[in-house]
Amino acid sequence: MTNKKRETTEVRQQQITEAALYVIGQKGISGATTVEIASASGISEGNLYRHFRNKEEIIKSVIDKIGDDLTLILASVAELTDPKDKLETIFKSHLLYLEGHVGIPRTIFSEETIVANDNLRTKVRSTISKYFMGIKEIVEQGQKCGILDEEMDSQSITSMFIGTIHFAVTRWMMNNFSTKLTDETEVLWKCFARGVNRKS
């Protein structure tokens, strides 16, 4: 009986997290009140507080979800043998993932997350650092195989990889998400790949 209750709580927390990500996508973090999140979850605000102590805890859960999803993207290329194929798959999957979740950039790039709240900033930094290290490991595999430029610093290549995605997302946000983020995927990938290929 106890296990069933715990599972129900975990499922409800997941539902609230998903609802919060949706509301943030529509209204930003400041507009994502607990009333709005509870409504999107199909529960009362009072019931929401049975699962999360406050709004900050909900935002932390959203950031954890983003981190888990990015980890799954990294894991999805485990069967591929070519490091460059791995990077291409991750690059395209990342942009596709973001296009389907407007709330992600509105969470990660919000002032409240990266400026105003130390706890949230620390959590975002940890999430991005783990993803960065996963990409960097694949980059170094590519350099050892002689596919990627060995004279370039692996950390710099990783920064270019994430920075290319970041630039595309920033422009997408400035256009109020009115365009398809993935329309540029192929061009962006080819530009990145050209810049880091091993020089013959």
TrEMBL record:
The keyword Ribonucleoprotein does not apply. Residues 10-70 form the HTH tetR-type domain. Residues 33-52 bind DNA. SUPFAM superfamilies: Homeodomain-like (SSF46689), Tetracyclin repressor-like, C-terminal domain (SSF48498). Transmembrane segments: none annotated. GO terms for molecular function: DNA binding. Pfam families: TetR_C_4, TetR_N. Keywords: DNA-binding. The keyword DNA-binding applies. Signal peptide: none annotated. This is TetR/AcrR family transcriptional regulator.
